[in-house]
Model the fold of this input.
Amino acid sequence: MLMFNSIKAQIMLVVCVLTSLTIVQIYFSYQSEQSYTSGIENTQSTISKIDLVKDLQREVVDLQRNVLIYKDNGSESAQSRFKQIVESISTKLSQLANVESEYKLPQEHLDYVSSMQGHLKDYQENFEQVVSGREQRDTLFKVKILNQFNALINELPTVTNDEKLTQINLIKLKLLSAENQVFHYVLEADFAKVNEFNLSLNECLTLVNSAQLDNTDYVVSAIKNIKIDFNRLTQITRGYVFLINVVMTGSANEFLYLTNELNELVSQRQAEINQQIQTQISSIRNKNMLLSVLSIVITIFIVLILSLRLLIPINSISHVFRKLAKGETGLAIPSKERQDEIGELAQAASVFQQTNLQTKELLESAQHQNKLHAKMNDDLADAKVKAEQATAAKSMFLANMSHEIRTPLNGVVGLIDLCLKSKLNEKQQEYLSKAFYSSQILMNVINDILDFSKIEAGKLDIEAIEFDFNLMLESLISNIQIRANEKNNRLILEVSPHVPLKMTGDPTRISQVILNLANNAIKFTDSGLVKIVINTSHENGEDFLVVKVIDTGIGMSPEQLSRIFESFTQADGSTSRKYGGTGLGLSIVKQLVKLMGGHITAKSVENEGTEFCADFKLLAKSNTTQTDLFNFAPNQIYYFADNNQTFIQKSLLTDYGFGCDIMASAEIADFSKSAISLATDNGLSANLVLIELSLDSDIKFLADFVVKLNKLGLTCLFLYEDNQVGKYFSTDLKGLAKLSLPSTPANFINKLNSLSQNREKKLDSGTKHTTADSAKPKYKGKVLLVDDNEINLLVAYEIMNSFGVEIDMAEDGQQAIDKYKEYRNYDIIFMDIQMPVLDGYQATQEIIKIGCNETKICGLSANAMKEDLDKAFSLGMSDYISKPLQVKDIENVLKKYLIKNTEPA
Amino acid sequence: MEFNKNKRNHIKQILLGSLAIGVYSKAPYVYAKNKQKLRILGTHVTLQEEIRQQAMADLGIELEFEAKGSASVLQKASMSPQTFDLYEQWSNSINVLWRSGSIQAIDKNRIKNWGEINNLVKTGKVSQSAKIGAGDAPYKILNVQADGHLSPQETDQISFLPYVHNVDSFGYNTNVIPKGIPYQTESWGWLLDDKYKGKVGIVNAPTIGLFDLALAAQAKGLMSFNNIGAISKQELDQLFSILTEFKQNKHFSGFWTSVPESVQFMSSNRVVIESMFSPAVSALNGQNVPVTYAAPKEGYRGWHGVMCLSSMTQGKAKDAAYDYMNWWLDGWAGAFIARQGYYISNPERSKSFLTEDEWNYWYLGKAAQNNLKGTDGNISVKAGDIRTGGSYVERFSNVAVWNTVMPTYEYSLQKWYEFISA
Done:
């Protein structure tokens, strides 16, 4: 009972019941069809039997007909036809006996058939007797009787006696009469003929006896034989006529009767079968009807039950579910007590309802949470705004810092610079130098912090301008060299000949990176070697400028190395104390390199040194490289040096295309001798002689040989380090070519170029070169200086004055405009940006409005932000100098726009 | 059901019988070395297996029975004497066989019990008041005369051994036809009674059936005969014209040719009245088909069994034939056939082989005291039954006509043919 609690089981049961009903129906249908089929089969079999019987009847009639034909004329064809028909009948009879063997033949049927077979057998036998009888009769008649008659008549004596003749004739007559009767009998079997035959022969016998013939005995016996034969003939005739007329006809009639009976039996049987089939079919139909009604009733019942048990509960539960789906709760759930699937459904609904309740609570809680989140989001947004405001404020603060700190610092640096240029005693000189140096450090620190802040704020923009590599390098080296000298470090610069002359990038920031790295190297190296190696590389279709800075300083442990690019980090705490610095340097370097699409790596061995390698993506580069600077074809160099480590590596010279022989400076004597002996050799004059100067060098000795060599047409160049020692030596080499190292390739090559041009000249003009380094170039032109800050104005004035230009000054933008209106032909206006009355931008706009065809305006501002520059250029300024003003910066501008005054000042 | 079962059993018997004949017909080769074989051609009336077995046991000879319908038997015998040694049929075949030379005369002196043969074949009368009966009464054709004629004149040569005989009439099913009163209401005319139209059977033999129908026509008053034992052509024409009309009206259901067939006719309900031989009546009663063998007021059609010796049988076969003939008159066979309603020509010899009750019933026409069984073991006579027609003497005193071959035989054959084919 439990198993039927499940609706599945109930439906299975229903399906089983319906299937069973269907199967039973199919079974009945099958039965019906079977009985119909068997009925048809039986009917067909019966019909075939009826046909058989009809054929039998026809054949029996035919049989009789043939028998009669035979009886009449002894026809052989009738005889053979008889045999055929008998065979056919026999076959049909066995068919009749077997035709329905698998289905019950009534005994009567078999009896009939067997009777018929018996009759047929008799009939056949009888016919055989008939045939035999007829043959016997024919023999008797034709062979015996007629012959006997003929013989007898012939044997009658021939007499001449009339009386006897009459008697014999009478005998003959009687014999002929008897013979005649025989003929008659044969034609028509009639007992009367037999009597007449006997009568004739009896009379004949009487006549024979009375006639007293010679052969009376013979005649009498012959007549008796004839009588016997005829008697047999009649008997045989009777016999077969009896057989035919009575026995065979009776058999045939009986046969026909039996066939009729059989026919009736078969028909009756057929009718019975039909009736039976009808009954069966009707019974099956009734059963089917009953079953169909039963099926329908059961189906309706099942439908009702299903409706009551399933559909209605499901409906109401569905209703509940719909309500539940709408989120309603507190519903009464029907059918919960049921044990079946409906019950489960109800349970599910109940769970659903429970879940709804929970969901509702959850929803409320979620809504509450959402509100909280919204509030938090608002707070966050506020915080973000505040943070952004704070960032903006920070930026603003930094900008202000930049301006506010650098402006006074500018003043300090400028004034110290000026002061240093005035006449001072040694002590003052020293103090001011230190103050200047400290100011510079302070400036650097401030710049570092500013840069870092800019980078942090994402405000640092990388420029993409074309610049002259050698120019950048020259100013960079001069800066680094000073520091290197201070720490007694030897600075070596190696620039690959493949480095392009011009490239596109941010020279300021590249310089900054190299400067930082080099300063760093110098900082941690005492009396060592700092080497800057510059090359290019090509990776993934992009060109990189690769800078290696190698020192022989204190180095770092791997642990330290791993942290050096982090902000505010130095190798360790002690480093900071010992070497100072903000700890921002390398961090800024790394950020800058990254901003310029490059990478920086470092490797170091503690107490042995450190190697930094930075590369910078070059947005473009010139096709010309360093070697393009040569005016001559590089040839053999004879390099005299006493250091193992030559100032210029042999390999570098080789790279630049020179052949190179390095010799000790003492060997120059021998070299000189050989050179003299080889003076006639033209090839030698094309060669170079490089002589390194060191502390131990015998300058005079060397200079003598150089003079000799120069005379021989050889170009000789002294190389010395750009330090105190070098400067000291250089003074002893008046009139001789010399070059301080490190040197940019351009300087080196240009030097060689000029030497090569003047190689055959005397060294008279050589003295002028000695002042080239210390004396400032002079420029022709008139400038207007605009700055509201008096100190700045003074510093700027002093610097520009040192370049020999005419100077007008204005203290604000309006004054500047007025001045300009007054005198239109200023070559350059140096315009401070932040000024009272009218700021630099406004003034520039006004001036450009007035129209300035030739006049260039150069902005001056402590606002070194990129946007300031952009604004300046967009308003029509031609240049921009960032404060604090540096002589170099100003010179660059002057050099750019003014013509050099070659006249001595 | 019982009826059908019986019917089936009976037919089975018949079939078995004919099968047995087939078997025995081959048997002689097995026994021929030691035993004399005797071929007997005849009808089912006397060619019965019990008789054959008994005779073989008694005589130590091999018997071969060939049982056929009466007409076939006659024909075969008359045409082919070489095919049999003894012929058993009815007296009406004597003229035919004798004339055809198929049989030879029997030496009366070799018949041991000849003296016991009753007067029926000697004087033609079993009693003073007895009618001789029309046609070939057996006594008229028994004695072979010196000239070869057969006549009542006693000689030592006889054409046949007289043995089984009876009077025939018709049987009717009392389920259908109310039982009549012997010699008073029972009449041959019933055979042509319209009431039984379609249910009438006649024996298919002009020498027998013709008389049944002639008697019937006469009894019915449809015609009369100058001499019913020698019907003329004209009378035949008239008779057959009447009969053909009946035939065409489907009055007759069939014409039987053998006793089993006549039993089959009646038991299958094909007929309710038909020409009958006595064993058929016994058999049917044994099968609970209540058939009454009528004692027609017009008198019986008498028949006399004849046992003839084939003209071709000589020597040891002939001796065996005489042995067999003598065996028949030795009592057992007479008693055996008495239980089938037949009479033997020397009844006293058989009396000791019968119970008194049987003797009284069968020969004396007295009521049976007990149920009497037939030769088939079935009860054929119930206690209290009286034989229709009465005692032997009474019955043979009422013979209207003997089965006869008339001078118009050839003509009757033709007419008979026309009649049964109509």
